[in-house]
Amino acid sequence: MTRVTLSGDQFILFVLVLKMSIMAAVGGALITWSFFKRLIFLDKRNTRQNWQLALLFGLFLAAGTAVRVLVGYEGMDLSLSGTFLVGLLGGMVPGSALGFFVSLPGLLRGEWGALPFTMLCGFAGGLIRARTVDRDEFWSFSPFFINNFVRSWRVFRAERRVDSRAAITFALVALEVLRTLVGNRFPTAIFIFHPDHFWVTLCVWLTTLVCVGIPLKVWNNTRVEALLEEQRSAAVQARFDALRSQINPHFLFNVLNAATSLIWSEPEKARWILVKLSSILRRLLRGGEDFVPLSREIDFIEDYLSLEVARFGPDKLKVEKALDPRALDVPVPSMLLQPLVENAVRHGISPKLGGGVVRLEARRDGATLRVTVKDDGLGFNETRSEGIGLRNVRERLRVAYGQRASIEIVSAPGRGASVTVLMPVERGDGDV
Asked: What is the crossing angle of helices 198-262 and 164-185, to 10°?
């Protein structure tokens, strides 16, 4: 077996690579933890949340320092970059407190300078956080210092100020210089590397920048993805609300038009329609939910059909229902069925001599909800263009469920029409 002997500088470089690898692995592992993800992306934290953040990092950093003190494994000591990072994310008090906790293993060994130094690191990170106007700046801190320099220079030229990326770079290099000076002056006061060449010392300082930049880069990628998802959801929600708002005026216009036509010929019936309409509108105004149980949607349809029965008469319009009890608790988009029922009455039953029947059916087939609106009216040719009501329903299903919902239309002239809406029982993570 061949043994490889490393020089002092070669060993230091190996340890530096190991430190960067450990920081990348820990940063990537932590961001997969939902508790940590919620905690790290809070712009403002209460005292408890700040101490949770400090404790989470403190256990890891103190263990690394203890391994270095007890075993002599320098690659596990990430006290400077770790405490600075916690100060940057949590503030001066959690950062300084973490520095005190992390310095204890070295302090017990006689490294008396470790305590004030690590507390200073956490305080410096918290001070930069407190002075930062735009938090996106330090989130975008890159492990490649050239990128930070270019971005900071652009900000300085445009706004004549030093941004947080430049402040982080300067603070970390200053802390490393301070640690090097103290360690050279008092060898037992604080742990430092003792390279043979100055360029290796520069590598030590750059490694600290990278150890802060790597987790920020990893976490910021997840943060940006979450922000994009929020924007997408907000855009979808706005589209959903716009589609829903199209239905209410359309429905209101038709009912008021029906009441107006009865004011002179049948004033009592017109008055009953208006009273019933006010009850329906009161329910709509109190509501506002995007999704309601199918049972509530059916109740609304029954109220609407009672208006139409009053308008046309019980002999002209009959209503039938066949509802699976298992389907009544399934959430559906509110006001989804009203345009379908209105089409059945207006285009199917109203122009038919002798009237007809509107039938509501709902059943649950496994993970799919099937809701059907049927009529035995005049029917229509399936090739004709869709009206605003049907287009609105189709678009709301697309916005709410994507490709997981669909509409089936079966009709022929003189044979009535059947419109079936198929929706998933369970709403997915991407649904509105």
From this structure: 150
Say if residues 117 and 151 touch (Cβ distance below 8 Å).
no
pLDDT band at residue 421 using 50, 70 and 90 as cut-offs? very high
For residues 188 and 341, what is the distance between their CA atoms, to the nearest angstrom? Answer: 85
292 pLDDT more than 60: yes
Q: Region 396-402: what's the mean pLDDT?
A: 82
Contacts of 123 by beta carbon, 8 Å cutoff, 6+ apart: 87, 92, 95, 96, 99
Strands 356-365 and 317-323: parallel
Per residue, the 3-state secondary structure of 59-70, as one string, reads HHHHHHHHHHHH
In 3D space, the residue among 416, 382, 378, 395 whose CA is nearest the CA of residue 339 turns out to be: 395
Encode pLDDT of 224-254 as tens digits: 877 766 666 655 555 545 545 444 566 677 6
Distance CA 49, CA 385 (A): 57
Phi, psi of 373 (to 5 degrees): -115, 115
How much is the pTM?
Answer: 0.59
In this structure, is the dihedral angle defined by the CA atoms of residues 236, 237, 241 and 242, taken in order, positive or negative? Answer: negative
Tell me 244's DSSP state. Answer: H
Q: How far is CA 117 from CA 106, 164, 335, in A?
A: 11, 21, 64
pLDDT tens across 370-381, in order?
A: 999 999 888 877
CA–CA distance, 237 with 431 (Å, rounded to integer): 10
Short-list 333, 120, 368, CA closest to 244? 333
Q: What are the E-state strand segments in 309-355?
A: 317-323, 331-333
Asked if pLDDT for residue 279 goes beyond 80, the answer is: no
Give me the helix-helix angle, 92-108 and 114-131, nearest 10°.
170
> What are the chain's domains?
8-230 (no CATH), 263-424 (3.30.565.10)
- Tell me: pLDDT of 194 over 50: yes
Model pLDDT, residue 306: 83
